Amino acid sequence: MSYLLGVVLFALAILISVSLHEAGHLLTAKMFGMKVTKYFVGFGPTIWSFRRGETEYGLKGIPLGGFCKIVGMTPQDDDVEPGDESRVMWRYPVWKRTIVMAAGSITHFALALVTIWILAVSAGLPNPDFPTTDAQARQEPAVIQLSECVVPENAVRACTPADAASPAAQGQLRNGDRITSVNGTPINSYGDLLTTLRGLKPGDTAQIAYVRDGQSATTSTVLAQTQRPPLNDPNGAAAPVAALGVGLVPSTPTRVTYGPVGAFGATADFTGQLAVGTAQALQRLPQKVPALWTALTGGERDVDTPISVVGASRLGGEAVENNAWLVFFMLFVSLNFFIGVFNLLPLLPVDGGHIAIAWFERARSWVYARIGRTDPGRVDYLKLMPFTYVVILIGGAFTLLTIAADVVNPITLFSR
């Protein structure tokens, strides 16, 4: 039940975000005096609506987004009523049209920023000093967390009855113990522990000195076997190595909370990292199509492949089911930021395409005026329709592929 509740809550959060996106267009268009005839949440048949002034507001039967109808977005629009010629959108200065078209993405960014700030002062944001690379982790003290088992292959998966028990657990080590030596070799860092274990063989007995609650002690255990690549070549071929069955407990906390003022700086830093990650994710999209197809046809799902609204809602359900509300809200932040950036791409039919054309027209008029030629006027959107259809076709196919993969072979964050 909690999983289903999470799915519904996340889907509702997405619907509200998209509705606010369209509200951004609505409010800025009205602010400048443009005529807005419709604002609806959802698509399909109208369930309920009312009219206020010249605009009809309402709710439609298919809750998959929303729309805002601004009269005369292009010179080719033929729905302009007599007397409204001066209020059509394309006649307004380019800076006003830019604000109206960008307002949707700005709304998504605002939702993300406000959520990040709230998280910064409540649950906390990821600690920038937390070790995120192997090199950083190896500099940490060898404070251990016991694994449930030793997986014999080089893979991350749940334990099975056939897997060897953790040698560290068999040696009565506990979570939070700091290992100080193995077979007499001093251990000053987690990297020292890994290097020393690689010098031993599966089946060897390890004499381990450790510190627990400020008290020194020793124990011994028989090392198990797993497969790992060389320490100096993470992409190298995996080979049998000795395993103690432990992981690292970093000395730095995973999250940091901030005061109301300090949270603004933390929000800016985190948003910068999010922007870089989003740009990199957009660049990788074409490369992920084969991986999505592999997942759809029965292969393993790559956790780095894109997800659809369906996949994001499922992850939201998992987060609620496991009481991981920070994950839920981070998904909300990431999705809003991604949608905001995507809508600014200079491609029709998204908002960024309209912005790009408006500024192209402005630049072209400026150039023609400087060289003494007649202003060529507005861009003919009808001539751009073939390119628009190509974008819609590619985007639609990619969306369907992603949704299908999220239904057949979804990404999961927690064991269910």
From TrEMBL:
<dbReference type="GO" id="GO:0006508">
    <property type="term" value="P:proteolysis"/>
</dbReference>
<dbReference type="GO" id="GO:0008233">
    <property type="term" value="F:peptidase activity"/>
</dbReference>
<keyword id="KW-0482">Metalloprotease</keyword>
<keyword id="KW-0812">Transmembrane</keyword>
<feature type="transmembrane region" description="Helical">
    <location>
        <begin position="387"/>
        <end position="408"/>
    </location>
</feature>
<keyword id="KW-0862">Zinc</keyword>
<comment type="similarity">
    <text>Belongs to the peptidase M50B family.</text>
</comment>
<feature type="domain" description="Peptidase M50">
    <location>
        <begin position="10"/>
        <end position="364"/>
    </location>
</feature>
<dbReference type="InterPro" id="IPR041489">
    <property type="entry name" value="PDZ_6"/>
</dbReference>
<keyword id="KW-0378">Hydrolase</keyword>
<feature type="domain" description="PDZ">
    <location>
        <begin position="162"/>
        <end position="198"/>
    </location>
</feature>
<dbReference type="InterPro" id="IPR004387">
    <property type="entry name" value="Pept_M50_Zn"/>
</dbReference>
<keyword id="KW-0645">Protease</keyword>
<protein>
    <submittedName>
        <fullName>Membrane-associated protease RseP (Regulator of RpoE activity)</fullName>
    </submittedName>
</protein>
<keyword id="KW-1133">Transmembrane helix</keyword>
<dbReference type="InterPro" id="IPR036034">
    <property type="entry name" value="PDZ_sf"/>
</dbReference>
<dbReference type="InterPro" id="IPR008915">
    <property type="entry name" value="Peptidase_M50"/>
</dbReference>
<keyword id="KW-0472">Membrane</keyword>
<dbReference type="Pfam" id="PF17820">
    <property type="entry name" value="PDZ_6"/>
</dbReference>
<feature type="transmembrane region" description="Helical">
    <location>
        <begin position="99"/>
        <end position="120"/>
    </location>
</feature>
<dbReference type="Pfam" id="PF02163">
    <property type="entry name" value="Peptidase_M50"/>
</dbReference>
